[in-house]
Amino acid sequence: MADIAVAGTGYVGLVSGACLADFGNHVICVDNNAEKIRALEEGKIPIFEPGLEDVVRRNREAGRLSFTTDMAAAVRKSGVVFIAVGTPPAEDGSADLQYVEAVAREAARAMDGYKVIVDKSTVPVGTGRKVTAWIRSELQACGAGDIPFDVVSNPEFLREGSAVQDFTHPDRVVIGTESEKARRVMKEVYRALYLNETPYIETNLETAEMIKYASNSFLAVKITFINEVANLCEKIGADVQAVAKAMGRDGRIGGKFLHPGPGYGGSCFPKDTRAMARIGQDAGVPLSLVETTIRANEEQKRRMARKIKEAVTGSPDGSLAGKTIAVLGLAFKPNTDDMRESPAIPILRDLAAAGAHIRACDPAAVREALWRLQDIRDSVEFGNSEYEAAEGADALVILTEWNQYRNLNLDALKKRMKTPVLIDLRNVYPRAQAEAAGFSYTGVGV
């Protein structure tokens, strides 16, 4: 059992803190947003993540998880301090470390004995050394330069929508440090996983930091590759789903992330690929594959908007004036309310610019959509259900593959729509099924 402080109650911090408490540790989650802390103390979870509310409640009741705005007190009570604050992209694509630095310096000012400081945020290579320098300078300024500490890089690999499962049943745990003492402390933190024989990757700070960026960048490349294969399949008469299935059977490739669609989004892949590209540029080693992936992913979103216009008007540049387009799904993926970098944003903006009236729905993301799509609010209304959205529509677009969209009553939808046009950007429905129901069908690569 370890005493832990987690700085930041955003997506990574809250999931990490709650799950670390579930491992039997005593965890204090810290945030400078007093309103958020009050809500968490009342059991209100600020993000949509399946299973998280139960984990928080269970550990609050057991006395292992608490919330506070008092960073200094949390640091003094803890032997391990996780930094899990945001690292938003700067204008040049690099990660903005101002919040990481602020937490590191604040933690240093409160240190009263040996601490392990853990970078959980996704940070550029070299950040661990910077954190060490920031803490050391603060300790010296306070006249406490002899207080010992170690810095560890422990990147997260959480998928939104399955983050609790990912944290409690990880493929691996990466521990980057050159201190044997810190390594032992981290194994105690993750003792529950260690006993379950979870693979541990023990390395230095720089390697651990690079593992996170390399992993996410590779997955982004894989998604973009199958999207480009899908675009080619459309031109030559091939079926990308059969191609992807056959590719995935190759043990060297694997079937995950070989699902064509409107492009990747979310809080990680767009930010991390841009940061990875910037790291390469700064090091004088341009990562051309990553840079091309970034450009190709943005083009894929624009291509999807053209695909919708062509399905409705017969031209990729056709006017949608007077047309109503029903859109199912706004979040960048199912089981989350997150619309950060969601393909829905540029696609809906393009449709609105073409004159479309958009009627959209999503099981979780409508509240976020209200402000993310504020610039086109005159062109968008939000329905309570997929059938309500389809009423009188000239076309129906599936943008996010929520489970409830996988078993739609196509006959009922057709009766509600003005024109039975289905643009399935996630290939949820086989063409034969949609056409048998009387729809004109457009998929991606099929």
From TrEMBL:
<comment type="pathway">
    <text>Nucleotide-sugar biosynthesis; UDP-alpha-D-glucuronate biosynthesis; UDP-alpha-D-glucuronate from UDP-alpha-D-glucose: step 1/1.</text>
</comment>
<dbReference type="GO" id="GO:0000271">
    <property type="term" value="P:polysaccharide biosynthetic process"/>
</dbReference>
<dbReference type="GO" id="GO:0003979">
    <property type="term" value="F:UDP-glucose 6-dehydrogenase activity"/>
</dbReference>
<protein>
    <recommendedName>
        <fullName>UDP-glucose 6-dehydrogenase</fullName>
        <ecNumber>1.1.1.22</ecNumber>
    </recommendedName>
</protein>
<dbReference type="InterPro" id="IPR036220">
    <property type="entry name" value="UDP-Glc/GDP-Man_DH_C_sf"/>
</dbReference>
<dbReference type="Pfam" id="PF00984">
    <property type="entry name" value="UDPG_MGDP_dh"/>
</dbReference>
<feature type="binding site">
    <location>
        <position position="265"/>
    </location>
    <ligand>
        <name>substrate</name>
    </ligand>
</feature>
<feature type="binding site">
    <location>
        <position position="212"/>
    </location>
    <ligand>
        <name>substrate</name>
    </ligand>
</feature>
<keyword id="KW-0520">NAD</keyword>
<feature type="active site" description="Nucleophile">
    <location>
        <position position="268"/>
    </location>
</feature>
<dbReference type="Pfam" id="PF03721">
    <property type="entry name" value="UDPG_MGDP_dh_N"/>
</dbReference>
<feature type="binding site">
    <location>
        <position position="160"/>
    </location>
    <ligand>
        <name>NAD(+)</name>
    </ligand>
</feature>
<dbReference type="InterPro" id="IPR008927">
    <property type="entry name" value="6-PGluconate_DH-like_C_sf"/>
</dbReference>
<dbReference type="InterPro" id="IPR028357">
    <property type="entry name" value="UDPglc_DH_bac"/>
</dbReference>
<dbReference type="GO" id="GO:0051287">
    <property type="term" value="F:NAD binding"/>
</dbReference>
<comment type="similarity">
    <text>Belongs to the UDP-glucose/GDP-mannose dehydrogenase family.</text>
</comment>
<dbReference type="InterPro" id="IPR014027">
    <property type="entry name" value="UDP-Glc/GDP-Man_DH_C"/>
</dbReference>
<feature type="binding site">
    <location>
        <begin position="157"/>
        <end position="160"/>
    </location>
    <ligand>
        <name>substrate</name>
    </ligand>
</feature>
<dbReference type="InterPro" id="IPR001732">
    <property type="entry name" value="UDP-Glc/GDP-Man_DH_N"/>
</dbReference>
<feature type="binding site">
    <location>
        <position position="271"/>
    </location>
    <ligand>
        <name>NAD(+)</name>
    </ligand>
</feature>
<feature type="binding site">
    <location>
        <position position="340"/>
    </location>
    <ligand>
        <name>NAD(+)</name>
    </ligand>
</feature>
<feature type="binding site">
    <location>
        <position position="87"/>
    </location>
    <ligand>
        <name>NAD(+)</name>
    </ligand>
</feature>
<feature type="binding site">
    <location>
        <position position="122"/>
    </location>
    <ligand>
        <name>NAD(+)</name>
    </ligand>
</feature>
<dbReference type="InterPro" id="IPR014026">
    <property type="entry name" value="UDP-Glc/GDP-Man_DH_dimer"/>
</dbReference>
<feature type="binding site">
    <location>
        <position position="31"/>
    </location>
    <ligand>
        <name>NAD(+)</name>
    </ligand>
</feature>
<keyword id="KW-0560">Oxidoreductase</keyword>
<dbReference type="InterPro" id="IPR017476">
    <property type="entry name" value="UDP-Glc/GDP-Man"/>
</dbReference>
<dbReference type="Pfam" id="PF03720">
    <property type="entry name" value="UDPG_MGDP_dh_C"/>
</dbReference>
<feature type="domain" description="UDP-glucose/GDP-mannose dehydrogenase C-terminal">
    <location>
        <begin position="326"/>
        <end position="431"/>
    </location>
</feature>
<feature type="binding site">
    <location>
        <position position="36"/>
    </location>
    <ligand>
        <name>NAD(+)</name>
    </ligand>
</feature>
<feature type="binding site">
    <location>
        <begin position="257"/>
        <end position="261"/>
    </location>
    <ligand>
        <name>substrate</name>
    </ligand>
</feature>
<dbReference type="InterPro" id="IPR036291">
    <property type="entry name" value="NAD(P)-bd_dom_sf"/>
</dbReference>
<feature type="binding site">
    <location>
        <position position="333"/>
    </location>
    <ligand>
        <name>substrate</name>
    </ligand>
</feature>
